[in-house]
């Protein structure tokens, strides 16, 4: 039995034991518990600490552990007044919840947006975090914009014209999105988005009080003609897009359109928020430059994150931008939370500057290419009624059109032991058909055949 499961097993037995005792009664001594339950003293002290945190016992150093006072029946807190006090400020967290929730035990995970544990650079991360923790300044304050070496790496990724002063370090991509949506335009304003688009971006925009307005895409990415029309119609000053390995469709915005949408946004006096979350999730082919690299006048606000190519808990990302928009974002960082925890920033820069990072990216590209082909082949063989919209050259997902009855397929698929992401949530308005997104990076490759058979 692992240490954590033996702690939980002891805590469960003590909970039952406490149920038969009166408040104020004393629990057996730690030594007695060690003998009675045949466990170590560390297990006993951790189990007691857990019960104390749950409010079931109180420990008095030198005297022992006692059963805590219980709330008399019928005195549950009445918080209904809060419903009135909180009126009008609810956040819809379903998209984020779906993204982060774990499917039930035994289900095959084709949902979610992160790498399977076997694809993460765990050894390199462990070493980087250990070195970061040993630095003499590890627990000092950090600059509000982020530590300079980390900003230097993110500036280089965004393009040759950027330096560390153009970068604000964030707690991953979602934090960057939410900061940009909260600080650039006023609540109530429209924000143009590709349709479909990343559900978390829709949630963050709505939480900031913005109104997402859908702009259609085709095989080459967002349509510049319709983007221009949407700017003219709404007067929007912000366009959120993912030019490279768009989530959920995997589309890459064509070279010609990159220039066109920059020109359209400039003509509208608007910002383009370039979510470059997948730059390190390519499957081996050459990548287009970030939009930001071809922008000299501050139109593009570029976002990046380490959670996708490294691990979900390496919650470090960045906004790269020029001009007053960056001052605004820096001010928001200070007002919100001062700065990001220094050890995580130091670990991130250590990882990115180690030879292990480049090795990891090379291995990851091969693994993603193989996984992408394997899942597409399994679906083609076993589930021909789902049609792959395109074979992506990067990213983590396949985007399928599905028969109409699968439109809300999560529950149906879950009951058959496969977790998928139904397409509905990726559309700000009515979806033009039934779609589903399958992640090929989160499950065991050996399970793809079974998953496709179950979906069929
Ligand atoms: C397109 C896109 N942008 C941003 C994010 C946010 O990722 P994180 O906050 O984990 O860096 C995600 C996560 O799924 C995403 O798919």
Q: Notable features of this structure?
A:
about 450 residues, alpha/beta, Arc Repressor Mutant, subunit A, Aspartate Aminotransferase, domain 1, Aspartate Aminotransferase, domain 2, 3 domains, 8-stranded mixed sheet, 4-stranded antiparallel sheet, 16 helices, 16 strands, about 40% helix, binds pyridoxal-5'-phosphate
Question: Could you characterize what this model shows?
Answer:
The chain is an alpha/beta fold. The protein has three domains: 65 residues, Orthogonal Bundle (Arc Repressor Mutant, subunit A), CATH 1.10.10.10; 119 residues, Aspartate Aminotransferase, domain 1 (Alpha-Beta Complex), CATH 3.90.1150.10; 236 residues, Type I PLP-dependent aspartate aminotransferase-like (Major domain) (Aspartate Aminotransferase, domain 2), CATH 3.40.640.10. Helices cover 41% and strands 14% of the residues. It has 16 helices and 16 strands. The strands form four sheets. The chain has an eight-stranded mixed beta sheet, with helices on both faces. The mean pLDDT is 93. The structure holds pyridoxal-5'-phosphate (PLP).
SSE inventory with pairings:
Blueprint: H1 3-19, H2 30-37, H3 41-53, E1 57-60, E2 64-67, H4 80-85, H5 94-100, E3 108-109, H6 122-134, H7 148-158, E4 167-170, H8 172-183, E5 190-195, H9 199-207, E6 211-218, E7 221-222, H10 224-234, E8 238-241, H11 255-268, E9 271-275, E10 300-305, E11 317-320, H12 324-337, H13 342-352, H14 355-382, E12 387-388, E13 397-401, H15 410-415, E14 418-419, E15 421-422, E16 435-439, H16 448-455
Parallel strand pairs: 3-14, 5-6, 5-8, 8-9, 9-10
Antiparallel strand pairs: 1-2, 4-11, 6-7, 10-11, 12-13, 13-16, 15-16
Helix pairs in contact: 1-3, 6-13, 8-9, 10-11, 14-16
The structure holds pyridoxal-5'-phosphate.
């Amino acid at each position: 039995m692992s240490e954590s499961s033996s702690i939980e097993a002891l805590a469960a037995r003590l909970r039952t034991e406490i149920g038969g005792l009166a408040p104020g009664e004393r629990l057996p001594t730690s030594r007695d518990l060690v003998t009675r339950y045949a466990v170590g003293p560390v297990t006993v002290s951790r189990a007691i600490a857990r019960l104390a945190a749950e409010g079931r016992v109180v420990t008095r150093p030198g005297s022992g552990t006692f059963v805590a006072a219980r709330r008399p029946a019928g005195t549950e807190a009445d918080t209904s007044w809060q419903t009135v006090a909180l009126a009008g400020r609810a956040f819809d967290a379903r998209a984020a919840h779906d993204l982060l929730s774990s499917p039930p035990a035994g289900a095959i995970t084709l949902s979610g947006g992160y790498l399977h544990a076997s694809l993460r650079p765990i050894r390199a991360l462990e070493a980087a975090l250990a070195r970061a923790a040993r630095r003499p300044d590890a627990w000092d304050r950090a600059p509000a914009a982020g530590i300079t070496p980390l900003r230097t790496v993110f500036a280089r990724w965004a393009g040759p014209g950027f330096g560390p002063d153009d970068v604000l370090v964030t707690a991953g991509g979602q934090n960057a999105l939410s900061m940009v949506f909260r600080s650039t335009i006023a609540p109530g304003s429209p924000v143009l988005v590709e349709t479909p688009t990343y559900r978390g971006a829709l949630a963050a925009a709505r939480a900031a009080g913005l109104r997402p307005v859908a702009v259609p895409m085709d095989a080459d990415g967002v349509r510049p003609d319709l983007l221009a029309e949407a700017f003219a119609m709404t007067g929007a000053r912000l366009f959120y897009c993912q030019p490279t390995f768009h989530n959920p469709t995997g589309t890459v915005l064509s070279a010609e359109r990159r220039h066109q949408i920059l020109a359209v946004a400039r003509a509208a006096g608007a910002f383009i928020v370039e979510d470059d979350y997948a730059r390190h999730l390519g499957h081996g082919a050459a990548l287009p430059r970030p939009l930001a690299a071809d922008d000299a006048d501050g139109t593009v606000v570029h976002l990046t994150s380490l959670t996708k190519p490294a691990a979900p808990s390496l919650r470090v990302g960045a906004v790269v931008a020029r001009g007053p928009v960056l001052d605004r974002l820096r001010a928001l960082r200070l007002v919100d939370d001062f700065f990001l925890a220094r050890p995580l920033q130091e670990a991130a820069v250590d990882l990115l500057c180690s030879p292990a990072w480049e090795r990891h990216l090379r291995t990851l590209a091969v693994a993603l290419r193989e996984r992408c082909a394997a899942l597409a082949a399994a679906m083609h063989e076993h589930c021909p009624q789902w049609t792959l919209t395109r074979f992506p050259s990067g990213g983590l997902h396949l985007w399928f059109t599905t028969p109409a009855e699968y439109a809300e397929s999560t529950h149906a698929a879950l009951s058959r032991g496969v977790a998928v992401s139904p397409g509905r949530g990726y559309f700000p308005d009515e979806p033009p058909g039934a779609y589903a997104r399958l992640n090929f990076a989160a499950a065991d490759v050996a399970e793809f055949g079974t998953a496709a058979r179950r979906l069929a």
